[in-house]
Amino acid sequence: MDLQPQMERWEGKVTAMVQSASSEQAWQLLSKFCDFHVWHPGVKVCRKESGKIGVPGCIRYCQGPDRENGQPADWANEELLSFDPVGHVFSYKMMENNMGFNQFTATFKVLDAKKVALKDCKGCELEWSFEGEPINGTSKEALIARLQAGLTGMASRVDETTLSNSGSCKDGAHDNAPDFACISSGL
What is the largest CA-CA distance in the chain? Predict the structure, then answer.
């Protein structure tokens, strides 16, 4: 009989709707593991530290915005664990960080709206789930609220980008599709 105390584990999930982009369009934007800062409003810097982007083992460094109170910005190194472009899903684990995370893994998915019972919606749903150890000084509810705010901001940025780039193709062949070449180059 195992008399070891069970470590508490947190699990949770947040979702956000993207109204203007299909799951394929949103995945094309959000699947770039080291472009997190482009889409997440709470991430100022994201860069590859090692490995090959999109391949398990790739490590990214993420940093939040500077704080006004003189405290260092939040930062973390995160390792890509799995990447499935067909299923529109990737998983990663948090490694070194200054936010109090110990063992923490997360999965990010882009789901077709019709597959999540939103039959009249032409958009998609973003899903961010996690599991890990409790964080000292932070409640599970506060973590979920922080993730929800980030994911909602990401969905808004995808909607804004998709809407602002629709109709920008020169040949008129893709009048309702975002110009992903412009998005990738930052134009």
Answer: 71
